[in-house]
Design a protein that fits this description.
Blueprint: E1 5-11, H1 18-26, E2 33-39, H2 46-54, E3 60-64, H3 71-81, E4 86-89, E5 95-96, H4 100-111, E6 115-123, E7 129-133, E8 138-139, H5 141-146, E9 156-158, H6 159-162, H7 174-183, E10 189-200, H8 207-224, H9 229-248, H10 250-256
Parallel strand pairs: 1-2, 1-4, 2-3, 6-10
Antiparallel strand pairs: 4-9, 5-10, 6-7, 6-9, 8-10
Helix pairs in contact: 8-9, 9-10
Amino acid sequence: MRPSVSIITPSYNSSSFILQTLRSVTTQTFNNWEVIIVDDCSSDSSAEVIQQYASQDPRIKFIQLEKNSGASIARNTAIEVATGRFIAFLDSDDLWHPEKLEKQISFMLENEVAFSYTAYEKIDEKGVSFDIVNTPTKISYKQLLKTNVIGCLTAMYDVEKLGKVYMPVNTKREDFATWLAILKKIDYAYGMPEVLARYRVYASQSSAKKTKMAKENWRLYRDLEQLSIFKSAYYFTHYAVRGVLRTKFPTLARALGVLD
């Protein structure tokens, strides 16, 4: 029997994209899955849209939080009730290629991998692809500290090997912190070079948000990972330089392998 996978999907005001996201799951060539959608008190029609679609497929499970609590708690609520051997993540505006689950699970089983990720493409609000994000074939804890190269929509871990790993609720870099926590348990996470997911980027994303994320990155080094100020400065410098190269000089970044 094929192993099962639980797909963790937090939702907040996602009515514009959630049906596209769910269809990218229901059209997977691998069909032994459950998707657990946790709505974080949306103020739009998300809940109604999701419930209507879920009524057509018992593998789609819907939970509503009683109060707005943030993505970490929404994801953790889903992880708590997940029954799959594998845990995968897919936000309510992102998409998967049809063979994503089948190829990634086969890769993990054949190579006895506990934690994996894949390359992915960036799309705009209309779904038009404009960039490819390549990833290294493997990465360690210390390497990942330099910059988070694991896209949340591509990450998958094996509960049999790692147990359930929950996201911290005291940081906005919850996915980054989770991958670091996993890499404290194992030597490497392993990447697949094939593009198997589509990450949606919004025009409204601003430099102010990037500044806030930079501050969160520093706090992650100091407070969550409890690195010394010197180590924090070392890793933060890598993070900042790579960020500038990716944003301002993408051609040079590709030549240097910074986008990989």
